[in-house]
Amino acid sequence: MSITFEEIPSGWQIRMDGQTVLTVDVPAGCTDSFEPIGDSALRWTRKCDTPVTQMKLTLKANYHPRYFQIPSVNYNGNGWGSGAQYSGYCCGNEPWTYAWHRVAIPACTYSESEDFAIALFGEEKGGMSCSIYPQDEGLVQELIWPEVEAPKVLSKRCWEDPYYGTMEPTDSFTGILMVMKAGKKRERMRDLLDFSWKYFYRDVKMCYTPERVKELDLLYIRSMWQQRFNGLVGFLNGVNWDEELCAWKKYPIAFEIGWCGQNGAQSCAMLDQYLETGDEDALHKAISTLDSWDSTAFLPNGLMYVKLQAKPDHLDSIMNGTIPTVLDTCNLGTAATYFFRAYDLCKKAGIDRPSYEKRAFGLCDFFARAQCPNGEFAKSYFVDGSIDSAHGSVACFVIPPLFEAYRRTGDRKYLDTALKGLDFYLSEFHKGGCTTAGALDSNCIDKESGAPLLRAVMQAYEITGEAGYLEDAVDVAYYLASWQWHYTIDYPKDTLLGELNVDTYGSTAVSAAHNALDHYGIYYIPEYLKLAELTGNDIWRQRARAIWYNGIQLISDGTLMVRGRVRPAGSQDESFRHTRWGRTDHKLYVPCEWCTVWQGTFRHAVLQELKDWTVLR
What we know:
The protein is of the alpha+beta class. The chain is built from 14 helices and 35 strands. It has a seven-stranded antiparallel β-sheet with strand order 1-2-3-6-15-14-11, with no helix packed on it.
């Protein structure tokens, strides 16, 4: 495979194996050069005779793509779901432009035809935007200076006015170009993700030891325990600042078994603490919470309420007497997983709680009965077991507990149900190249729904030994990697993220609708480390380490002060507004200041699973 360049009157033609792939128009007074920097990768530099205040590095491909992507922002047009998100190439007749810091690889666009694949991205210092759109008989990919976001800017569930930046006169512009043979659909995304990771790679220094992280996380989890006047017991979601009280206030709305609340996992964390140290208070908080859910939440059909503010038969204290009656599979699958684990931990502690395992099996039996003929599970159900919302790969959360039910019983019903479901979601994933509906506060393409799919397919490989599942796992892992930040955004010191020295490197974006960074990648650190071991590709270890590094930033040790507010020990922001995205307060480049407990629960689960913490040091 060879890349050659032919100078033409308007600029350059770039050819691969003798076939013209790209045309580059060079403005008058400018000179372009292309420096090989790796397999299929070139550093494209444009020098101007006179400094300018605007520039575009524009590629024109002579194909209509079968697939395109702006990593973490736009997956082939974002044709799934609802709500505000970037859709297609254009808004009306005007192409979308995306700021460099909105994208997981700075200002990156990727496209492929049946024959070729093209990637273009910027340098870490930023200052540019990107765009991709069809033109005449081909496709345009470009880097744009100065930074622009137009014709409108995506914010949280709404749109804002366009942004047009300015810059000092500059005479040199650089981009990174990759020209590749296409291969299988989206296969060259692997090359882009591997090359860009290596290009921006740096080792990281952890701000806490794993031992200290564990200590702070358990402290914060413990502090969220609450017993209500109506007898309900559980762990609250976190704290937010109450300006009237001038204090941090626990979020009082509802207990939740999974997703943001993670009551099942938190109870198991407390049981772990008891088994390791004999801590009776931890045991009390765990058992009282699990018993409360066990006695209150479950339904005769095997389902359960996933959020509780009061006992379902005594709702006088609840506004309008209502509690959530839509039961999503993220919560249901998580509940089954942790009720199995809680049963095992109680057994180790000499505590008899057979009902915990019975509840987990009840959920798995419901999943087996409710599975559609094609293998799909619903995204959510009503309390009578009928379908509320039919579609979304978030339902992969039910597959790991089905595998666990098979391990415990040897009953093929559970294995067959799990594999049939997994094969359905893998087929959907390979068809569309994305996963959906995991971020429950949006309904779109996202990262969170890819996490249980990766866990499920890794478990399928472990159980069956079929090599195809390992290859599927690598595909899903690369998809998740497209949501991971490959570089550091250097925020100005007059922004809060700049003042706090928040590093974006290693973090992961939430969804196509919610362009914020959070710590959910912690969930699949064990899978990334296992992939490194199974494939021999050390990039997965590096990515896992970077996720951990990013995910322990701004954990308060009890003395951390942000905006004059001293934060409780173990607390941490759920997310960061790393780009021009946020709420109607128009505060940009800030932490969210909603200090949830789920990320600490995920960290604890990682530490409990890993026998060796060296990679996290």
